[in-house]
Amino acid sequence: MASLKEIKERIASVRSTRKITSAMKMVAAAKLHRAQREIGALVPYADELQSIVAHLASGEQSEPIALAQVREVSHLTVVGFASNTTFCGAFNNNVGRKVVEMLGSEEYAELGPDSRHILSMGRQLSVDLTRQKIEHECGDEHLAEKPNYLAYRTMADGLMKSYAEGHTDRVVVVYHKFISPGVQRLVCEKLLPIELPKAEESRLGEVEYILEPSRKELIESIVPRQVALKLFTAALSSVASEHAARMIAMQAATDNADELAASLSLEYNKQRQQAITTELLDMMGGKRES
């Protein structure tokens, strides 16, 4: 049984830890609010771009779009988004597990290490893949924490060039899709070849517009922007999901600290009361003997 001094020290330690977890929760909540605001500002633009592409794709085209051509997968590129830091529950482990699960799936199981290129956006994903001896390339850790559109546009241009030249046949993005502060869905989305939206997804109506330049040239100009936007949106969604996961984890840690402190305080009071009772009994016994 621990002494009163040891219990008192443990209570002080737990309360100190509780202050740290509570502060981390508040910081994560503030960062989550900022990330939600950035995603909210991006959604209308993404929806409008999707609508324009759907309207253009619904018309007659003389030639298929190069970035939409589907071919047999002999070379695969995977872009995984995780965080640089920990204390966010199973957020990072789930991304690593999803990447490994996808590589071992029936569709990609026959691809060897030379036929796949894995880009890790986030230090913790790189650590996880290294631990499992999976060859990968480390992306810019700063971009995993603070996404920048111009940097991701450059990355998207490189991926599209690699796809157009036949160095890769499919580009897949693995990340946590932010739904709400309490819900983040781990998804595995195909970035290339791009799937052109259907005509019913257009909000432009059935008006016949006069297009200049041609419909095909417009699509080939807009689609690369849409690919870059999808990659940037995945990065923003991953960051928002990370902050949400950390906020939930720190809230759980704070609640556990409160419960442990209350339990230790109860144990301390019981032992203190028992010590006082023992002293009183000793005093009473000594008085009778005298």
Structure, explained:
The chain is α/β, with parallel strands linked by helices and 290 residues long. The chain has 6 helices and 5 strands. It has helices spanning 4-57, 91-103, 123-131, 141-145, 149-164, 215-289; strands at 76-81, 116-121, 137-138, 170-180, 183-192. The chain has a 5-stranded mixed β-sheet. Strand 1 (76-81), helix 2 and strand 2 form a beta-alpha-beta unit. The chain starts with a helix and ends with a helix. The mean pLDDT is 87.
Major sheet details: 5 strands, mixed
N- and C-termini, Cα separation? 34 Å
Helix content: 55-70%
The total count of strands amounts to 5
Order of helices and strands: HEHEHEHHEEH
Radius of gyration: 28 Å
SS content category: alpha/beta
Strand content: 5-15%
Number of helices: 6
Task: Provide the spatial order of strands within the biggest beta sheet.
Answer: 3-2-1-4-5
Write the layout of secondary structure elements.
Blueprint: H1 4-57, E1 76-81, H2 91-103, E2 116-121, H3 123-131, E3 137-138, H4 141-145, H5 149-164, E4 170-180, E5 183-192, H6 215-289
Parallel strand pairs: 1-2, 1-4, 2-3
Antiparallel strand pairs: 4-5
Helix pairs in contact: 1-6, 2-3, 5-6
